[in-house]
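Project standup — Tuesday

K.O.: blocked on the structure for the chain from last sprint. Re-posting the sequence here as requested.
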Amino acid sequence: MQDTHLSLLAALDAEELFLLGVRASQANDTAAALAYLKQAVAKAPEHARGHWLLGAEYASLGMVDRAREHFERSVALDGQLPLARFQLGLLRLTSGEVEAAQEVWAPLDALPEDDPVRLFKDGLLAMVRDEFERALELVRRAVATPGVDAALRRDMEMVLGQIEAQRAGQAPAVAAAEAAADPVDEAPAESHLVLSAYQRGFAGNSH
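H.V.: unblocked you, prediction finished:
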């Protein structure tokens, strides 16, 4: 049975393996998602979305170095995946690398001014600068964006709570950003930012 299963997997191409990885991640089956995605990028090292989702799975396990490696690979392969770039910057921000996060996020300024990803990253940067009123304004605008999906909205609402806490003097700004993006948070699988992006159509290209 195991040999048959391995034979079936060997017959699949990278895109098929990637889609199986998406389904496993949606089901919160991290082990299966990792297995499918690792095979996908082994078969097609240029598969940007595969590296992106693999990085997100590693981030959910707290394996920051591996998450960073795959986010960086994804962005290098396809700089037009806004949430892949956003997540790489967020990983750097929550590691205390504020300037590096700003550098990664700079191309997001090409997005429309009312794009929720751009608003969200601007809000986080304002929070780090202790500009709490500005941060609240930006993230609230992102949350109120028509059509923003529930998963991304949930993450933004969590950040709103962190900004409110920081404004009340309860936590350092970078620590607040780190708490907002903690990969071991109790958020359900549907709040997974990468899956949110996939469902919004950011995965439209084959790589």
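K.O.: great, moving the ticket to review. Confidence is low (pLDDT under 50) at residues 182-191, 197-207. The domain at 1-78 is CATH 1.25.40.10 (Serine Threonine Protein Phosphatase 5, Tetratricopeptide repeat).
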